[in-house]
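User: Please fill in residues for this 207-position structure.
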């Protein structure tokens, strides 16, 4: 589903930079004549390009109200450009920190949203692999804004651990784990998120 015949600029007006990660940049973009979206741009030099087509094909088939939707995919000689839903609200951790911690009601609402997304992914035999605060985004700044889980990370060349230690399940080994174990690792990460929501800080390793 990589669009080799068209260009991002033919369908979208690319706007300001709104985010930056270790391997990608995110721009606000306007679908010509339609709605605002986000464009995540990866440098192909950082990706396992042989795995990208099947990974992208899997991502575009996913459809769930609590997961960021992918609308278009473009490829150039040096970049992979993925157009997704636009989230202009805060990351989950930013909202938690602003209020010091969530109430039980606020936490339960967020957990219900995340579990719904994970239940759908796991029913498709697809672990997410990155259930971290920076991958959970509120769609707007409104207090009742919808929370969504970002798309699963792209396969990267880097061999460094992609999971922060605090979110890494004790039983998880990226080289050996089965799909079932990788899905259970998502639930471990969610457990850490629940702790952060209620206490406003990460648990220590001793805990």
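Assistant: Residues filled in for all 207 positions:
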């Amino acid at each position: 589903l990589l669009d080799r015949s068209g260009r991002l600029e033919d369908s979208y007006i690319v706007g300001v930079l709104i985010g930056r990660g270790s391997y990608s940049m995110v721009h606000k973009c306007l679908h010509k004549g339609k709605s605002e979206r986000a464009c995540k741009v990866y440098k192909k030099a950082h990706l396992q390009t042989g795995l990208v087509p099947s990974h992208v094909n899997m991502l575009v088939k996913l459809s769930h109200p609590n997961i960021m939707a992918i609308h278009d995919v473009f490829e150039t000689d040096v970049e992979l450009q993925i157009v997704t839903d636009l989230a202009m609200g805060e990351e989950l951790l930013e909202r938690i920190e602003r209020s010091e911690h969530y109430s039980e009601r606020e936490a339960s609402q967020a957990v219900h949203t995340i579990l719904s997304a994970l239940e759908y992914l796991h029913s498709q035999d697809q672990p997410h692999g990155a259930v971290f605060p920076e991958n959970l985004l509120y769609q707007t700044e409104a207090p009742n804004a919808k929370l969504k889980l970002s798309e699963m990370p792209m396969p990267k060349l880097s061999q460094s651990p992609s999971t922060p230690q605090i979110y890494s399940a004790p039983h998880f080994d990226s080289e050996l784990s089965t799909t079932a174990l990788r899905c259970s690792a998502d639930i471990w990460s969610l457990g850490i998120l629940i702790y952060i929501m209620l206490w406003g800080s990460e648990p220590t390793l001793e805990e």
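For context: The chain has a mean pLDDT of 87.
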